[in-house]
Structures
1.
Amino acid sequence: MHTLIPFAAPAGPQCQEAMTRLTLPYLAELLELLTPTPPLLGTEDSLSPLHERVHAKSLNLPGADGLLPWAALDARQLGLTRSFGETGWAWITPCHWQINADHVAMDHPDALALDAHEIDALRAAMQPYFSEDGITLHPLNHSTWLAQGGILRDLPTASLVRACGAKVDQWMPRVAQARSLRRLQNEMQMLLYRHPVNDARAAGRKPTVNSFWISGTGTLPAGAMDKSDTMSVQHLLEAAALRDDANAWAEGWQQLDSTLMATLLRQAKAGQSLELTLCGERMAAGFELQNTAWWNRIQRRFTTPTPAELLRTL
Protein backbone atom coordinates (compact mmCIF):
# COMPACT_ATOMS: atom_id res chain seq x y z
CA MET A 1 0.00 0.00 0.00
CA HIS A 2 1.15 3.50 -0.90
CA THR A 3 0.20 6.13 1.72
CA LEU A 4 -0.30 9.74 0.57
CA ILE A 5 -0.61 12.60 3.06
CA PRO A 6 -1.89 15.82 1.42
CA PHE A 7 -1.37 19.16 3.16
CA ALA A 8 1.63 17.76 5.01
CA ALA A 9 3.12 21.27 4.70
CA PRO A 10 0.40 23.83 3.86
CA ALA A 11 1.26 27.30 2.62
CA GLY A 12 -0.67 29.22 5.29
CA PRO A 13 1.60 31.38 7.48
CA GLN A 14 0.22 30.02 10.78
CA CYS A 15 0.77 26.40 9.75
CA GLN A 16 4.20 27.27 8.36
CA GLU A 17 5.20 28.71 11.73
CA ALA A 18 3.78 25.66 13.55
CA MET A 19 6.11 23.35 11.59
CA THR A 20 9.07 24.53 13.64
CA ARG A 21 7.41 23.18 16.82
CA LEU A 22 6.26 19.79 15.46
CA THR A 23 7.61 16.72 17.21
CA LEU A 24 6.82 13.53 15.30
CA PRO A 25 8.94 10.73 16.79
CA TYR A 26 7.44 7.82 14.85
CA LEU A 27 7.80 9.63 11.52
CA ALA A 28 11.39 10.56 12.42
CA GLU A 29 12.29 6.94 13.08
CA LEU A 30 10.43 5.77 9.98
CA LEU A 31 12.32 8.16 7.73
CA GLU A 32 15.61 6.64 8.93
CA LEU A 33 14.49 3.28 7.49
CA LEU A 34 13.14 4.54 4.15
CA THR A 35 14.87 5.57 0.94
CA PRO A 36 13.83 8.78 -0.89
CA THR A 37 12.38 8.47 -4.38
CA PRO A 38 12.47 11.20 -7.08
CA PRO A 39 10.23 14.09 -5.94
CA LEU A 40 7.38 15.60 -7.94
CA LEU A 41 7.30 19.39 -8.14
CA GLY A 42 4.22 21.62 -8.07
CA THR A 43 3.07 25.25 -7.80
CA GLU A 44 0.52 27.04 -5.67
CA ASP A 45 -1.33 28.42 -8.71
CA SER A 46 -2.04 25.13 -10.49
CA LEU A 47 -5.69 24.17 -10.93
CA SER A 48 -4.95 20.58 -9.90
CA PRO A 49 -3.16 20.45 -6.52
CA LEU A 50 0.00 18.40 -6.32
CA HIS A 51 -1.54 15.67 -4.17
CA GLU A 52 -4.22 15.07 -6.82
CA ARG A 53 -1.52 14.72 -9.47
CA VAL A 54 0.31 12.18 -7.29
CA HIS A 55 -2.88 10.17 -6.81
CA ALA A 56 -3.75 10.34 -10.51
CA LYS A 57 -0.25 9.14 -11.44
CA SER A 58 -0.64 6.13 -9.18
CA LEU A 59 -3.88 5.25 -10.99
CA ASN A 60 -2.46 5.78 -14.47
CA LEU A 61 -5.10 8.49 -14.83
CA PRO A 62 -4.05 10.98 -17.54
CA GLY A 63 -5.05 14.62 -17.74
CA ALA A 64 -3.68 18.14 -18.07
CA ASP A 65 -3.83 20.73 -15.30
CA GLY A 66 -7.50 21.17 -14.35
CA LEU A 67 -8.50 18.17 -16.45
CA LEU A 68 -7.85 15.20 -14.19
CA PRO A 69 -11.12 13.34 -14.92
CA TRP A 70 -12.12 12.35 -11.38
CA ALA A 71 -15.84 12.65 -12.13
CA ALA A 72 -15.51 10.49 -15.26
CA LEU A 73 -13.80 7.87 -13.12
CA ASP A 74 -16.76 7.91 -10.71
CA ALA A 75 -19.17 7.65 -13.65
CA ARG A 76 -17.36 4.63 -15.05
CA GLN A 77 -17.25 2.90 -11.68
CA LEU A 78 -21.01 3.49 -11.24
CA GLY A 79 -21.73 2.11 -14.71
CA LEU A 80 -23.08 5.43 -16.01
CA THR A 81 -20.73 5.47 -18.99
CA ARG A 82 -22.44 2.37 -20.36
CA SER A 83 -25.63 4.43 -20.74
CA PHE A 84 -24.22 7.86 -21.56
CA GLY A 85 -20.85 7.03 -23.15
CA GLU A 86 -17.40 8.46 -22.46
CA THR A 87 -18.55 12.07 -22.76
CA GLY A 88 -17.53 14.98 -20.55
CA TRP A 89 -18.14 14.63 -16.81
CA ALA A 90 -17.75 16.88 -13.77
CA TRP A 91 -18.44 17.09 -10.08
CA ILE A 92 -21.04 19.71 -9.15
CA THR A 93 -20.86 20.62 -5.46
CA PRO A 94 -23.54 22.81 -3.84
CA CYS A 95 -21.83 25.41 -1.67
CA HIS A 96 -22.20 28.65 0.28
CA TRP A 97 -20.50 31.78 -0.98
CA GLN A 98 -19.77 34.65 1.40
CA ILE A 99 -20.35 37.95 -0.39
CA ASN A 100 -17.88 40.55 0.92
CA ALA A 101 -17.36 44.15 -0.11
CA ASP A 102 -14.34 43.43 -2.31
CA HIS A 103 -14.45 39.68 -2.93
CA VAL A 104 -16.45 36.46 -2.75
CA ALA A 105 -15.19 33.63 -0.54
CA MET A 106 -16.41 30.05 -0.28
CA ASP A 107 -16.91 28.04 2.89
CA HIS A 108 -15.98 24.37 2.75
CA PRO A 109 -19.08 22.55 1.44
CA ASP A 110 -18.72 19.92 4.17
CA ALA A 111 -19.91 22.59 6.61
CA LEU A 112 -23.35 22.46 4.96
CA ALA A 113 -23.88 18.83 6.06
CA LEU A 114 -26.75 18.40 3.60
CA ASP A 115 -29.02 15.42 4.17
CA ALA A 116 -30.39 13.13 1.44
CA HIS A 117 -33.72 14.98 1.18
CA GLU A 118 -32.01 18.37 0.80
CA ILE A 119 -29.50 17.28 -1.83
CA ASP A 120 -32.22 15.55 -3.89
CA ALA A 121 -34.59 18.54 -3.67
CA LEU A 122 -31.86 20.94 -4.79
CA ARG A 123 -30.90 18.73 -7.71
CA ALA A 124 -34.54 18.51 -8.87
CA ALA A 125 -34.87 22.31 -8.77
CA MET A 126 -31.59 22.98 -10.57
CA GLN A 127 -31.76 20.27 -13.25
CA PRO A 128 -34.04 22.17 -15.70
CA TYR A 129 -31.57 25.06 -15.83
CA PHE A 130 -28.62 22.76 -16.44
CA SER A 131 -30.59 20.92 -19.13
CA GLU A 132 -30.73 24.11 -21.19
CA ASP A 133 -26.96 23.76 -21.59
CA GLY A 134 -27.09 20.03 -22.31
CA ILE A 135 -25.98 19.00 -18.81
CA THR A 136 -27.58 16.17 -16.84
CA LEU A 137 -27.13 15.90 -13.08
CA HIS A 138 -26.82 12.45 -11.51
CA PRO A 139 -26.81 11.73 -7.77
CA LEU A 140 -23.46 10.77 -6.27
CA ASN A 141 -23.47 11.42 -2.51
CA HIS A 142 -24.81 13.84 0.11
CA SER A 143 -22.50 16.65 -1.00
CA THR A 144 -21.88 16.25 -4.73
CA TRP A 145 -23.56 15.39 -8.03
CA LEU A 146 -22.12 13.94 -11.19
CA ALA A 147 -22.73 16.17 -14.22
CA GLN A 148 -22.63 14.83 -17.78
CA GLY A 149 -22.45 16.95 -20.93
CA GLY A 150 -20.29 17.74 -23.94
CA ILE A 151 -19.38 21.19 -22.58
CA LEU A 152 -17.46 19.49 -19.75
CA ARG A 153 -15.16 17.43 -21.97
CA ASP A 154 -12.30 19.95 -22.33
CA LEU A 155 -13.17 22.47 -19.61
CA PRO A 156 -10.25 23.01 -17.18
CA THR A 157 -11.50 23.64 -13.65
CA ALA A 158 -9.90 24.26 -10.28
CA SER A 159 -10.08 21.62 -7.58
CA LEU A 160 -12.59 22.26 -4.81
CA VAL A 161 -9.79 22.63 -2.26
CA ARG A 162 -8.36 25.54 -4.26
CA ALA A 163 -11.49 27.64 -3.73
CA CYS A 164 -12.28 26.70 -0.11
CA GLY A 165 -11.51 29.65 2.13
CA ALA A 166 -10.04 31.58 -0.80
CA LYS A 167 -11.21 34.33 -3.13
CA VAL A 168 -13.46 32.48 -5.54
CA ASP A 169 -12.90 34.74 -8.53
CA GLN A 170 -9.23 33.79 -9.00
CA TRP A 171 -10.22 30.12 -9.43
CA MET A 172 -13.22 30.52 -11.74
CA PRO A 173 -12.81 28.95 -15.21
CA ARG A 174 -12.00 31.58 -17.86
CA VAL A 175 -12.14 29.65 -21.13
CA ALA A 176 -14.86 30.48 -23.66
CA GLN A 177 -17.08 27.46 -22.97
CA ALA A 178 -17.29 28.46 -19.29
CA ARG A 179 -19.50 31.48 -20.06
CA SER A 180 -22.69 29.46 -19.86
CA LEU A 181 -21.60 28.02 -16.53
CA ARG A 182 -21.01 31.49 -15.10
CA ARG A 183 -24.51 32.39 -16.26
CA LEU A 184 -25.81 29.25 -14.57
CA GLN A 185 -24.17 30.28 -11.31
CA ASN A 186 -25.94 33.64 -11.47
CA GLU A 187 -29.27 31.93 -12.19
CA MET A 188 -28.76 29.50 -9.31
CA GLN A 189 -28.15 32.34 -6.88
CA MET A 190 -31.56 33.75 -7.77
CA LEU A 191 -33.27 30.35 -7.77
CA LEU A 192 -31.83 29.30 -4.43
CA TYR A 193 -32.46 32.59 -2.66
CA ARG A 194 -36.01 31.59 -1.66
CA HIS A 195 -35.84 27.84 -2.16
CA PRO A 196 -37.71 25.86 0.55
CA VAL A 197 -34.55 23.98 1.49
CA ASN A 198 -32.78 27.25 2.23
CA ASP A 199 -35.81 28.69 4.04
CA ALA A 200 -35.78 25.70 6.37
CA ARG A 201 -32.02 25.87 6.85
CA ALA A 202 -32.13 29.61 7.60
CA ALA A 203 -34.89 29.03 10.14
CA GLY A 204 -32.67 26.44 11.81
CA ARG A 205 -29.67 28.82 11.73
CA LYS A 206 -27.81 26.59 9.29
CA PRO A 207 -25.71 27.89 6.35
CA THR A 208 -27.66 28.08 3.10
CA VAL A 209 -26.80 26.90 -0.40
CA ASN A 210 -26.39 29.85 -2.76
CA SER A 211 -24.09 28.57 -5.52
CA PHE A 212 -22.17 25.54 -6.80
CA TRP A 213 -18.59 24.60 -7.63
CA ILE A 214 -17.56 22.62 -10.67
CA SER A 215 -14.45 20.44 -10.62
CA GLY A 216 -13.06 17.06 -11.66
CA THR A 217 -13.84 17.79 -15.31
CA GLY A 218 -12.71 15.80 -18.33
CA THR A 219 -13.15 12.43 -19.96
CA LEU A 220 -11.40 9.10 -19.64
CA PRO A 221 -9.47 8.20 -22.79
CA ALA A 222 -9.33 4.64 -24.05
CA GLY A 223 -6.95 2.52 -22.03
CA ALA A 224 -6.99 4.80 -18.99
CA MET A 225 -7.23 3.34 -15.52
CA ASP A 226 -5.59 -0.02 -16.11
CA LYS A 227 -4.31 -0.08 -12.52
CA SER A 228 -6.21 -0.76 -9.31
CA ASP A 229 -6.18 1.87 -6.57
CA THR A 230 -3.50 0.84 -4.09
CA MET A 231 -3.04 4.33 -2.64
CA SER A 232 -4.43 5.29 0.76
CA VAL A 233 -5.06 9.06 0.77
CA GLN A 234 -5.18 10.53 4.28
CA HIS A 235 -7.35 13.67 4.49
CA LEU A 236 -7.01 14.35 8.22
CA LEU A 237 -4.93 17.52 7.75
CA GLU A 238 -7.02 19.04 4.96
CA ALA A 239 -9.74 21.01 6.79
CA ALA A 240 -7.32 22.63 9.26
CA ALA A 241 -4.82 23.44 6.51
CA LEU A 242 -7.46 25.16 4.38
CA ARG A 243 -8.42 27.33 7.38
CA ASP A 244 -4.74 27.88 8.28
CA ASP A 245 -5.68 26.61 11.74
CA ALA A 246 -2.23 25.84 13.10
CA ASN A 247 -3.37 24.22 16.33
CA ALA A 248 -5.81 21.84 14.64
CA TRP A 249 -3.30 21.06 11.89
CA ALA A 250 -0.55 20.25 14.42
CA GLU A 251 -2.98 18.11 16.42
CA GLY A 252 -3.84 16.26 13.23
CA TRP A 253 -0.18 15.56 12.59
CA GLN A 254 0.27 14.32 16.17
CA GLN A 255 -2.66 11.95 15.65
CA LEU A 256 -1.23 10.67 12.37
CA ASP A 257 2.16 10.15 14.00
CA SER A 258 0.84 8.16 16.95
CA THR A 259 -1.42 5.97 14.81
CA LEU A 260 -0.56 5.68 11.10
CA MET A 261 3.17 6.41 11.37
CA ALA A 262 3.51 4.01 14.29
CA THR A 263 1.85 1.30 12.17
CA LEU A 264 4.06 2.00 9.16
CA LEU A 265 7.12 1.92 11.40
CA ARG A 266 6.19 -1.55 12.65
CA GLN A 267 5.70 -2.70 9.06
CA ALA A 268 9.06 -1.26 8.01
CA LYS A 269 10.85 -2.97 10.87
CA ALA A 270 9.18 -6.22 9.83
CA GLY A 271 10.52 -5.76 6.29
CA GLN A 272 7.07 -5.27 4.74
CA SER A 273 6.93 -3.32 1.46
CA LEU A 274 5.56 0.21 1.80
CA GLU A 275 5.61 3.63 0.16
CA LEU A 276 4.97 7.01 1.76
CA THR A 277 4.47 10.39 0.08
CA LEU A 278 4.29 13.66 2.01
CA CYS A 279 2.76 16.36 -0.13
CA GLY A 280 3.02 20.15 0.10
CA GLU A 281 2.33 22.80 -2.53
CA ARG A 282 5.83 22.91 -4.02
CA MET A 283 6.97 19.31 -3.71
CA ALA A 284 5.77 15.79 -3.07
CA ALA A 285 8.49 13.88 -1.22
CA GLY A 286 8.29 10.12 -1.71
CA PHE A 287 9.91 7.34 0.31
CA GLU A 288 9.96 3.57 0.07
CA LEU A 289 11.40 0.63 1.95
CA GLN A 290 14.37 -0.95 0.23
CA ASN A 291 16.54 -3.86 1.29
CA THR A 292 19.83 -2.09 1.89
CA ALA A 293 22.95 -3.19 3.67
CA TRP A 294 23.15 -2.31 7.34
CA TRP A 295 26.01 0.16 6.82
CA ASN A 296 23.92 2.14 4.31
CA ARG A 297 21.18 2.41 6.90
CA ILE A 298 23.68 3.60 9.48
CA GLN A 299 24.97 6.21 7.01
CA ARG A 300 21.44 7.46 6.33
CA ARG A 301 20.89 8.08 10.03
CA PHE A 302 23.36 10.95 9.74
CA THR A 303 21.82 12.42 6.56
CA THR A 304 18.07 11.94 7.11
CA PRO A 305 16.33 15.26 7.81
CA THR A 306 14.08 15.64 10.83
CA PRO A 307 10.33 15.78 10.07
CA ALA A 308 10.29 19.55 10.64
CA GLU A 309 13.26 20.04 8.27
CA LEU A 310 11.59 17.87 5.64
CA LEU A 311 8.21 19.62 5.86
CA ARG A 312 9.82 23.04 5.39
CA THR A 313 11.08 21.90 1.97
CA LEU A 314 7.65 20.86 0.66
2.
Amino acid sequence: MIDTIAFDADDTLWHNEHLYSLTQEKFKRLLAPFQDAATIERRLYATEMRNLAFFGYGIKGFTLSMIETAIDLTEGRVGTREIRQIIDFARDMVRAPVELLPGVRETIASLSVSYRLMVITKGDLFDQESKIARSGIADYFQHIEIVSEKTPETYAAVMRRYHIEPPRFLMVGNSLKSDILPVVAVGGNAVYIPYHLTWEHERVTDEGVNAGGYVTVSRISELPAWLARLSAI
Protein backbone atom coordinates (compact mmCIF):
# COMPACT_ATOMS: atom_id res chain seq x y z
CA MET A 1 0.00 0.00 0.00
CA ILE A 2 1.48 3.35 -1.04
CA ASP A 3 1.01 6.00 1.62
CA THR A 4 3.65 8.62 0.67
CA ILE A 5 3.87 10.32 -2.71
CA ALA A 6 6.82 12.55 -3.59
CA PHE A 7 6.80 14.88 -6.58
CA ASP A 8 9.60 16.41 -8.55
CA ALA A 9 9.00 20.15 -8.98
CA ASP A 10 10.42 21.55 -12.24
CA ASP A 11 8.55 20.32 -15.33
CA THR A 12 6.46 17.96 -13.18
CA LEU A 13 4.45 20.48 -11.16
CA TRP A 14 5.28 23.63 -13.13
CA HIS A 15 6.99 24.65 -16.36
CA ASN A 16 10.73 25.28 -16.09
CA GLU A 17 12.90 23.94 -18.92
CA HIS A 18 11.40 26.36 -21.45
CA LEU A 19 12.98 29.24 -19.48
CA TYR A 20 16.42 27.72 -20.02
CA SER A 21 15.70 27.09 -23.70
CA LEU A 22 14.53 30.67 -24.27
CA THR A 23 17.52 32.07 -22.40
CA GLN A 24 19.90 29.90 -24.37
CA GLU A 25 18.43 31.31 -27.59
CA LYS A 26 19.02 34.85 -26.28
CA PHE A 27 22.57 33.87 -25.38
CA LYS A 28 23.26 32.49 -28.85
CA ARG A 29 21.97 35.70 -30.43
CA LEU A 30 24.17 37.73 -28.08
CA LEU A 31 27.30 35.84 -29.14
CA ALA A 32 26.34 35.53 -32.81
CA PRO A 33 28.99 38.10 -33.87
CA PHE A 34 31.68 35.81 -32.42
CA GLN A 35 30.58 32.20 -33.04
CA ASP A 36 27.96 30.11 -34.81
CA ALA A 37 24.94 28.86 -32.85
CA ALA A 38 25.95 25.20 -32.82
CA THR A 39 29.39 25.98 -31.38
CA ILE A 40 27.88 28.23 -28.71
CA GLU A 41 25.38 25.59 -27.69
CA ARG A 42 27.99 22.84 -27.56
CA ARG A 43 30.49 24.89 -25.55
CA LEU A 44 27.84 26.13 -23.12
CA TYR A 45 26.72 22.59 -22.38
CA ALA A 46 30.31 21.44 -21.85
CA THR A 47 30.90 24.34 -19.47
CA GLU A 48 27.70 23.55 -17.55
CA MET A 49 28.77 19.93 -17.10
CA ARG A 50 32.21 20.99 -15.90
CA ASN A 51 30.71 23.47 -13.45
CA LEU A 52 28.09 21.21 -11.89
CA ALA A 53 30.58 20.01 -9.31
CA PHE A 54 31.29 23.63 -8.29
CA PHE A 55 28.00 25.50 -8.65
CA GLY A 56 25.35 22.77 -8.77
CA TYR A 57 22.06 22.97 -10.65
CA GLY A 58 19.91 26.03 -11.18
CA ILE A 59 19.89 29.54 -12.56
CA LYS A 60 23.01 30.78 -10.75
CA GLY A 61 25.18 27.96 -12.06
CA PHE A 62 23.68 28.37 -15.53
CA THR A 63 24.46 32.10 -15.47
CA LEU A 64 28.07 31.60 -14.40
CA SER A 65 28.45 29.03 -17.17
CA MET A 66 27.10 31.50 -19.74
CA ILE A 67 29.55 34.15 -18.58
CA GLU A 68 32.48 31.72 -18.67
CA THR A 69 31.46 30.47 -22.12
CA ALA A 70 31.18 34.03 -23.41
CA ILE A 71 34.68 34.83 -22.17
CA ASP A 72 36.13 31.65 -23.69
CA LEU A 73 34.40 31.88 -27.08
CA THR A 74 35.34 35.52 -27.57
CA GLU A 75 38.91 35.00 -26.27
CA GLY A 76 38.25 37.61 -23.63
CA ARG A 77 36.82 40.19 -25.99
CA VAL A 78 33.31 40.05 -24.54
CA GLY A 79 32.46 43.41 -23.02
CA THR A 80 30.75 44.59 -19.87
CA ARG A 81 27.61 45.32 -21.88
CA GLU A 82 27.28 41.68 -22.87
CA ILE A 83 28.02 40.49 -19.32
CA ARG A 84 25.32 42.84 -18.04
CA GLN A 85 22.87 41.37 -20.54
CA ILE A 86 23.65 37.84 -19.36
CA ILE A 87 22.97 38.91 -15.77
CA ASP A 88 19.69 40.47 -16.92
CA PHE A 89 18.79 37.15 -18.59
CA ALA A 90 19.22 35.49 -15.19
CA ARG A 91 17.08 38.07 -13.41
CA ASP A 92 14.32 37.52 -15.96
CA MET A 93 14.44 33.78 -15.25
CA VAL A 94 14.22 34.29 -11.48
CA ARG A 95 11.33 36.73 -11.85
CA ALA A 96 9.37 34.52 -14.25
CA PRO A 97 5.94 33.55 -12.89
CA VAL A 98 5.41 29.99 -11.66
CA GLU A 99 3.07 28.40 -14.20
CA LEU A 100 1.53 25.15 -12.98
CA LEU A 101 1.11 22.36 -15.51
CA PRO A 102 -2.48 21.44 -16.44
CA GLY A 103 -4.28 19.46 -13.75
CA VAL A 104 -1.62 19.92 -11.08
CA ARG A 105 -3.60 21.98 -8.58
CA GLU A 106 -6.66 19.73 -8.67
CA THR A 107 -4.63 16.52 -8.54
CA ILE A 108 -2.44 17.61 -5.65
CA ALA A 109 -5.48 18.81 -3.68
CA SER A 110 -7.25 15.50 -4.26
CA LEU A 111 -4.28 13.31 -3.33
CA SER A 112 -3.50 15.30 -0.19
CA VAL A 113 -6.69 13.95 1.40
CA SER A 114 -5.46 10.35 1.40
CA TYR A 115 -1.67 10.49 1.10
CA ARG A 116 1.32 12.14 2.71
CA LEU A 117 2.73 14.38 -0.01
CA MET A 118 6.32 15.54 -0.44
CA VAL A 119 8.39 17.55 -2.90
CA ILE A 120 11.86 16.24 -3.73
CA THR A 121 13.65 18.56 -6.11
CA LYS A 122 17.21 19.54 -6.92
CA GLY A 123 18.61 22.93 -7.76
CA ASP A 124 19.46 26.25 -6.16
CA LEU A 125 17.97 26.51 -2.66
CA PHE A 126 16.83 30.14 -2.98
CA ASP A 127 15.26 29.66 -6.42
CA GLN A 128 13.48 26.41 -5.53
CA GLU A 129 12.15 27.75 -2.22
CA SER A 130 10.86 30.84 -4.03
CA LYS A 131 9.07 28.82 -6.70
CA ILE A 132 7.50 26.49 -4.17
CA ALA A 133 6.28 29.45 -2.09
CA ARG A 134 4.85 31.20 -5.17
CA SER A 135 3.25 28.08 -6.63
CA GLY A 136 0.08 28.32 -4.58
CA ILE A 137 0.20 24.61 -3.69
CA ALA A 138 2.93 24.55 -1.01
CA ASP A 139 0.47 23.93 1.83
CA TYR A 140 -0.48 20.54 0.40
CA PHE A 141 3.03 19.16 1.02
CA GLN A 142 4.06 17.91 4.43
CA HIS A 143 7.75 17.74 3.58
CA ILE A 144 9.99 19.55 1.09
CA GLU A 145 13.46 18.26 0.26
CA ILE A 146 15.81 20.34 -1.92
CA VAL A 147 18.81 18.18 -2.74
CA SER A 148 22.04 18.63 -4.68
CA GLU A 149 21.65 15.35 -6.62
CA LYS A 150 19.04 12.64 -7.04
CA THR A 151 20.78 9.32 -6.65
CA PRO A 152 19.61 6.02 -5.15
CA GLU A 153 21.48 7.03 -2.00
CA THR A 154 19.61 10.36 -1.88
CA TYR A 155 16.21 8.69 -2.03
CA ALA A 156 17.20 6.00 0.47
CA ALA A 157 18.32 8.70 2.90
CA VAL A 158 15.05 10.62 2.50
CA MET A 159 13.03 7.46 3.17
CA ARG A 160 15.06 6.69 6.27
CA ARG A 161 14.65 10.24 7.54
CA TYR A 162 10.87 10.03 7.35
CA HIS A 163 10.63 6.32 8.29
CA ILE A 164 9.17 5.31 4.92
CA GLU A 165 9.46 1.76 3.64
CA PRO A 166 10.36 1.74 -0.09
CA PRO A 167 7.29 -0.32 -1.15
CA ARG A 168 5.07 2.36 0.44
CA PHE A 169 6.84 5.20 -1.41
CA LEU A 170 5.93 6.62 -4.82
CA MET A 171 8.02 9.16 -6.74
CA VAL A 172 6.40 11.12 -9.58
CA GLY A 173 8.55 13.03 -12.05
CA ASN A 174 9.49 13.92 -15.60
CA SER A 175 13.11 12.74 -15.56
CA LEU A 176 13.91 9.05 -15.92
CA LYS A 177 17.49 9.73 -14.87
CA SER A 178 16.74 11.73 -11.72
CA ASP A 179 13.19 10.92 -10.64
CA ILE A 180 12.45 7.39 -11.75
CA LEU A 181 15.37 4.97 -12.15
CA PRO A 182 17.09 5.85 -8.82
CA VAL A 183 13.84 5.21 -6.92
CA VAL A 184 13.25 1.89 -8.66
CA ALA A 185 16.83 0.94 -7.79
CA VAL A 186 16.08 1.18 -4.05
CA GLY A 187 12.78 -0.68 -4.22
CA GLY A 188 10.38 2.25 -4.43
CA ASN A 189 7.56 2.89 -6.89
CA ALA A 190 7.76 5.48 -9.66
CA VAL A 191 5.45 7.15 -12.16
CA TYR A 192 7.04 8.84 -15.14
CA ILE A 193 5.25 11.82 -16.73
CA PRO A 194 7.21 12.92 -19.83
CA TYR A 195 7.65 16.62 -20.47
CA HIS A 196 7.98 17.94 -24.01
CA LEU A 197 11.46 19.38 -23.34
CA THR A 198 14.33 17.44 -21.79
CA TRP A 199 17.71 18.89 -20.88
CA GLU A 200 20.46 16.87 -22.53
CA HIS A 201 21.98 16.05 -19.14
CA GLU A 202 18.73 14.33 -18.08
CA ARG A 203 18.46 12.05 -21.09
CA VAL A 204 19.06 8.32 -20.68
CA THR A 205 20.02 5.54 -23.04
CA ASP A 206 17.53 3.12 -24.58
CA GLU A 207 18.62 0.64 -21.93
CA GLY A 208 17.45 3.04 -19.24
CA VAL A 209 14.18 3.77 -21.02
CA ASN A 210 13.44 0.06 -21.28
CA ALA A 211 14.63 -0.81 -17.78
CA GLY A 212 11.08 -1.27 -16.50
CA GLY A 213 9.88 -1.15 -12.92
CA TYR A 214 7.95 2.07 -13.40
CA VAL A 215 4.68 3.27 -14.89
CA THR A 216 4.26 5.97 -17.53
CA VAL A 217 1.26 8.30 -17.71
CA SER A 218 0.79 11.20 -20.10
CA ARG A 219 -0.43 13.78 -17.57
CA ILE A 220 -0.61 14.22 -13.82
CA SER A 221 -4.42 14.13 -13.79
CA GLU A 222 -4.21 10.40 -14.60
CA LEU A 223 -2.45 9.68 -11.32
CA PRO A 224 -5.49 9.37 -8.96
CA ALA A 225 -7.19 6.83 -11.22
CA TRP A 226 -3.98 4.77 -11.47
CA LEU A 227 -3.63 4.80 -7.69
CA ALA A 228 -7.25 3.72 -7.30
CA ARG A 229 -6.70 0.76 -9.63
CA LEU A 230 -3.55 -0.16 -7.75
CA SER A 231 -5.37 -0.10 -4.40
CA ALA A 232 -8.11 -2.34 -5.78
CA ILE A 233 -5.70 -5.11 -6.73
